[in-house]
Batch of 2 targets.
Target 1
Amino acid sequence: MAESRTIGVFGAGWVGLVTGGCFAELGHEVIVRDVVPERIDALSTGRLPFHEPELPEVLARNRERIRYTLDADEVAGADVLFICVQTPPTYSGDADLSFVWTALDDLPRVEQRQILVMKSTVPVGTGEKVRAALEARGLTNVGYVSNPEFLAEGTAVRDFMNPDRIVIGSFAEEDAALVEALYSGIETPIVRTDVASAEMIKLAANAFLSTRISFINEIANVCELVGADVESVAQGVGLDHRLGPHFFRAGVGWGGSCFGKDVSALKQLAGNSGYHFQLLAAVIEVNELQKRRVISKLEKHLGRLRGKTIAVLGLAFKPNTDDLRDAPSLVIASRLLAEGALVRTWDPVADARDRLRGATQCATVFEAVTGADAAVIVTEWDELRGLASKEVHDVMARPLIIDGRNLLDPGETRRAGFAYDSIGRPSSPFEGLPETAEQETKVSS
Ligand code: UGA
């Protein structure tokens, strides 16, 4: 068990609440400070502003050790202050650090030494800038540590409590030691390094994960052309211990609030330093094109999409979250609407009604597929595993499934009477449906 410390957390967003909740679980006293009154009110009465499995239980279980406040002065007694504010991309693709600077402005002046710990993802060099800003403000008794988060949405609590590693970058050994001690009780390798390297580890990890996915997506696209099956290819390649099986699932492209932002931030960071990071430019472009491949697959089967009804199944950028940021579903549904298709969406938790005007959001999968000319699996929710059922077959106008996540078994789906197309695996055409001249044109173009 860790020696109990008082931890202040700036930012009651997803990273801040997971960090605060999990440190409370480890036995520390936690004060979470945010500037949005509604958010603090909601949290104080036990309501969570987003969907994250296990987090409500962690916060409830440690209620005695967590306090929520609007007042920055309440963190004056904290030994360690975690900065967990957002760092959205600016128009130039750089990270917007204004929330970080506002948090610094709000730091209470205290007698005892405090350590500021950066959890937010920031450009390399931010630590140096913060150190200079602290000095300029006369805050000489404030230490600085970079301790990036590697939490994935939907599994954040598990990722915090069972991490692959903890990265601690510092200017002073004793500050790093104090931060490392906060994690006592968690068995994992600790990477102690300088601040710039810690900042780079975070960006490089996300950039490499995105690169793996764009790579397997391109392999999938080639598989389709040469008659190979990407699922077998990924398995056969991933069993090489030098390569590994993870983050090797082909699909409709990566989304979420982190990959796009961080890949772009790293590319810009390199560019600003005079280096053109060609590989990352390709990784981003491959991902943009990958989201749109579903449209050409639909056209291959249905011809022109104007007036066709398409069920878009799954809206969140991945299962077990309601997060729609950078979700491939938004690009796919928007393209379909632009083509003149009638779009019916379904998701168990994400609500895209204000982002997809013109689409109909349905309460159930069954409602979404009723009368549809095609059903597209965009997010691999468990609820969709049974999609190839007789009931669904009978209510669809045409039994066509485009599986953007390779969720279903091709053989079973076809035996259930569906035409089925997925990513990087052989497709099956409609049988018994007359092809129109229009469709023939599209297929051959
Ligand atoms: C990601 C990283 O995985 C975390 O380690 C990191 O801490 C986090 O960003 C962050 O920077 O805060 P997250 O965005 O929650 O986490 O989601 P992932 O599970 O990484 O998935 C990202 C996207 O990649 C999803 O759209 C997912 O569907 C897609 N993906 C993932 C694939 O297309 N194929 C795969 O094999 C894996």
Target 2
Amino acid sequence: MEAGESVELEAWLEARESFEPPESFVEQANVSDPGIYEEFEEDWPDCWERAAELLEWDRPWEGVLDTSTAPRYKWFTGGRLNAAYNCVDRHVEAGRKNHAALRWIGKRGETETYTYGDLERETEAFAAALRGLGVGEDDVVTLYLPMIPELPIAMLACARIGAPHSVVFAGFSASALETRMERAGAEYLVTCDGYYRRGDALNHKGKADRAVRRIDRDIETVVVDRLGGGLPHSLGENQHDYDGLIERNRGRTVEPVARDAEDMLFLMYTSGTTGQPKGVKHTTAGYLSYAAWTSHAVLDVKPDDTYWCSADIGWITGHSYIVYGPLALGTTTVMYEGTPDYPDKDRMWEIVENYEVDQLYTAPTAIRAFMKWGSQYPEEHDLSSLRLLGTVGEPINPKAWKWYYKHIGGEECPIVDTWWQTETGGMMITTLPGVATMKPGAAGPPLPGVDAQVVDEAGEEVAPGEAGYVTVNKPWPGMLRTLYNNDERFLSEYWEAYSDPDADEWVYFPEDGAKIDEDGYITILGRVDDVINVSGHRLGTMEIESAVVGVEGVAEAAAVGGDHEMKGEAVYAYVILEDGYEESGEMEQSIIEGVEEAIGPIARPEEVIFTPELPKTRSGKIMRRLLEDIANEEDLGNTSTLRNPEVVDDIQNKL
Ligand code: WT7
């Protein structure tokens, strides 16, 4: 292409506000009939049987939806099924034993392929091993593993025997692991010796051991030898070698346990406004059918595809769209342990080319990095295998959307900008790629059968273009059922704001701001609670603040999210020191280390700002919004209602 042409194309792309899905895509799409929206509406809630029918049941459901104990909804009542059977065994039985299920790519370029047959053997052996250690139905097993094949294998092994797993992101600290194990009452842990980061071997078992030591009960621990002796470790009491267990249990039969539709499949901890992390409970039937349905309808996954979601399985995206959704549909799912820039910045495109990836599902933070690195990296590779692109985790701005569309999708792939949350289990607001016009920057309309709207404080729908809050007026199969061991908080966090319990009207509040346009397309504006979204990962301000206050010499702290070019948001920590302590580089360092120790490097403050005071309302509440505006160097408006308006100048001068 001539330089002039490329400039013209750029300008044309920039001016465009909407894009139609390519004809070639529509022709082959799993869902291409626009009538589906109306069909789902008319047939609600029975429309969701379509999702349930993607699974194999030991006993069919009797009722689709039970609202009698709302908002504790029950889906597919009376049905029984096993999630691991649905993700593995049934594909083997269908003659696809030798079909690749999992293609793993390690940090050092190692690769492994597990066929459905392999996956069945491994999960069955590990399921037998877990049973041998005493794991029974409904016992929570904590999985603290990096992106290695043993993680999905352990998840499926748990599912096979009806033991809910609770995966804790490997980048979390010992103390974050401890809290999550304590809150889940977990007595079993699967972890590993270590893993590589930028060429260095990290001691992961050390973190796991520290957490276990602080827990006042016996924890049976399984240790995967990831480094093959690269980091010598020894096994203590109640600690078992993964490979040894597998060898001893190979060939044992473990029948998949037929679980009740509503039985817990897993727990996933996430952050909220206040207090401790929340244990989001997902169920066997509702969650799995929803993950499978959205993988089918939105990601257009077909059994013969090679599908790649670049998230970490330590978060919900990896649960739903690396493991459960794709495997339920019998496809080949790619699992990549490494980072996008190692050994070079074309690593992702090399993988797409080598594996002939059909769908790529990634995050805006990654797309912003690709943009910054430049289009020469994708241009070095043949990306023509790609059929669909997706994004998740935070708003994507139109510029990044268009870059992705042009340089990765070659203007031939629809993009799905999927809004959802840990709590929703799967996608809620996004275009159907084979049906709808795409508008860069807007996630799209709610999916068929999903009743989401944008409302004002009073719950009235806002006019097009005005800012409001997302609410969901009808239940959906993938929804969380409660917060583990904290049903009260489940009610107060998600249902109190907009429901009318007297009228038995239940409205789910996801705590996101949004606006809607004339065509019903929703643009997500971001969290309205005190949650910071760093590179698409949700961090609670309270947790960060208590970590900072835990550092010797710190009297008070406020953590807020400031805009960040790459991460979307970054942590800004405003800190008041105790008398007798001076602000210094060392103090800053110990605050940063304190946060890393308490939560993990992901929560590391980008800036530590020492201040003699924090801006407070007359009633003494810290004005977080104001601190955010200060971090973002925005116009602060009227600050005279503060109890201490003079502090604003002081802080601004520090930045
Ligand atoms: C929060 C949920 C869903 C898996 C990843 C994060 C934000 C998510 C989008 C999107 C704008 C988005 C929301 C949401 N978010 N997807 N497509 N556009 N914002 O899961 O940790 O539970 O975080 O991520 O603010 O509430 P999570």
